[in-house]
Amino acid sequence: MTDTAVVYQTHDVPQPRQHGKPGGILRHTSIITGTVLGVVAAVVTYAIGSHFFVPWGTQNSDASQVGLNALIAATYFAWVIFFMIGIGAFAGPIRWALGHDLTHDDAEYMAGKDQGKWRYWKYTTDHKVVGTQYLIVSMVLLGLGGLLAMLIRTELGITWMEVFDPNFYNSLIGTHGIVMIIALIIVVTGPFGNFILPIMIGARDMAFPRLNALSFWLLFAAIPPLASNLFLGGLRDGWTVYQPLASQAPIGMIGYQVTIIVFAFSTGVASVNLITTSVTMRARGMTWNRVPIFVIGVIASSVMGLVWFPMFQYSQILAISDKVISTSFYNPVMGGSVWLYENLFWLLGHPEVYVVVIPGTAALMELMVVFLRKPLFSYKVAIAGFAGVVGISSIVWVHHMYMTGWAPSAGYPFMLSTELISIPFGFLVLVMLGTLWRGKPWTRLPMMCVYAVVWDKVVGGITGVYLSDVPVDQYMHGSMFVVAHFHYMLMGAGLFAAIGATAYWFPKMTGRMLDERLGSIGFWVAFFGFQLTFGSMFVAGLQGMPRRVLQFDNAFNISNWLSTIGAFTIGIGMLVFLYAIITSWRSGKPSGSNPWGGKTLEWQTETPVPLENFPVLPVVTGDPYDYGVPDPYDAVLEADKQPAGVA
Amino acid sequence: MSIDNPPTIEVDQPEEPTNRPAADHRLKEWLSRGYVRRIIVLSVIIGLVILPLAWLVIHFMNLTGAPASAIMVEIERTMFVFTVVSAPLMAITLAILFYSLTGWGRVTGEDPPMQESPAIRTNGTAVVLWIAATSILAGFLVIWGLVELATITSYANGSTPANQQPNGQKAIDINVTGQQWVWTFEYPDQGAITTDTLVVPIDVPLYFNVTSKDVVHNFWVVELGIKIDANPGAITNTGVTPDKLGTFNIRCAELCGLHHAYMQTKIKVVTQAEFDSWVREMGGKRTV
User: Fold this and answer.
1) Are residues A513 and A566 in the same domain?
2) Chain A residue numbers touching B152 (CB-CB < 8 A)
């Protein structure tokens, strides 16, 4: 233990009373009690509410529509709240409020001690369990989003007919969008920020283990409302759900709004937890210039999420209030403003891209030093790059609104800030190139992801430079070019980096090596499919094809056929990769505790990682990138300098 | 340094004496390294491969019709310039990326490599050069963009480029109304005639007052390079002077519900005489 704990004990700080036996209701809650209580509460709310809120004889009047909206919203919120109660999220705080704290046994029980696989289905506070849960959920979401993407490309590839009903098609693009956005926000910080980061900084757990479980289960509770909209008319308005189009939407829209509101709580809780953990829980000796770069990346991403997610949440709170209590924040007929929604939405909407890209980039920086056996090039420039991106990302959102007519003259300052963000973003590219410089790569899958991601970043970055320019955006805005560009950033730089991170930390999380051959085949098939899909989508955009359409001019046929072929190639590649993950997880080669020869702390503890990570808390005496041999070229210069230096 | 000859400490010495070779000598030595030369050659090759992209971009943009207004010409020029100035940095980045795959050697196999690479912690020269290069590039793009934005804004407001015929013609006002899922165009000065296909005279400034009856649409005249949201409860403005005869595309570029994909129409740019007779045909009055 640290000195601080000793000091407290000598002063005999009064502890909360710890009476009572260990046990109680805490030990009987799980996903089953949560789901049962949530579903029951939702059904009861709906049944009771439909008596009071909705006069059934007048279904077509506005009043009944508002009543129905309120009823659906209440039902969803009942599900979320009672699911959380049922799974035991509040058992700890309630006991605390009643004057008895959890006993040590209870705390260990909550951390999942000696419960085998069952602990993954409970409100478990162990960060390793939460990280694994996040990994599974993000893969499920990515699979669902990918499936929807295949359907979208099917429609767009079959150019001679409408395969789907236009309403269903619009639901596909909206649901694909928001599912993928949620999946990508959690795909690096969720699994690796929770599982790896505390070990990496030499902590026994996160700073707030119960909040950690809370953030995951809030995310879990937020998914059914989103998924259910497919049965309640669909999310027909794109993931942006611009107003007032959203006010015409069927009641499924409420599901989207509830999901965003709950998910924002989940993100906020997770961000606070990650930041606090990184700041306060570092091992002794891990000064700020010895912190692994992945930790810095997670902090940067969490800061952006913490600051800007409430804007997105607020935009949906106002939207749901328009729906259920007939306010008119966004209703122009009643004096509301559509631009208010667009501003609130894009205040998160743009930083969100960096929330996705930065932790992935930081993970790649973390792993490339191991595979190159070289220190990270210019650690401080990397930090400056993250800081610069975080700072500038908060003043660029209006570039999504150049063509809305909201404030044409705002184009000038926001073009300036948007072009400027390429400078700190360039720092990150410099760090990666500098680390590659004169290194001998160990060409395993995680390292190859670095090459793939730098390529995608170059393409996505250059096309982003076009879009940040107002005159060019006047042509490109709302076209397929934009779609291709942000897929290069979110999927090319975000998801492929997450694949690299998964391949790298898979041995630590599962104790087994990821099948190198299958994993690589899947990855490269997906990568080249990706280039085909979105490379030709750039062409469709340049030709003037608007996005979110299901029928279009024959002029765009060829590029769409190619895109569809590419998309199915991605699908095949991802399935192979998924198969590699599943088989390796079940029966892969045992990895040992440090298969890559890494020097950061997570590789120094045993695998599988014990409950409190380290038998003895480590003390850090050096920086994590102590790789490499003296540069032979420098050695010559150093020898020359020696007399002067000593003098 | 030896014991017989201990170093003397000179207090007044302004700078640390060093045997470091002069900067130009170091540069020469650096350029003489094999890998540096190969990366430079690779950069040039990649650059030469990338540059045709600039033409390709314009080619694709013109596949559905050549630019039909000065605004579109400026947009294409900006695309071209951006591609050209980004190419060197892109080429160097990709050259280093590709070269590092095998250029300095590579390690395969199951076990972590024992052979370590040089411990290059940082390099002040490289960092400064990179930051300077990206900043100059970004600065150039910003300045170019600001000037171009001012230019196309002035074109949109009716002024015509100096190299075109001077005209003192009054701009034609057109009220554009989007509704799910059609465009309606009204000519208030021509006797308030309405149409769902735009017909406009060549070389006359057009001024659009754009609004919507229901949800947000986006009025995009593709080959003329103008685009503005049609918002309910607000009027947004844009303008353009078409300078090419022909039929061009108008598409909705903002998801507006069920038949968003079909919310498109045409704009016919005709001669003044044809426009006048079209106005008469539609029952409007000639005002120009």
Assistant:
1) yes
2) 471, 474
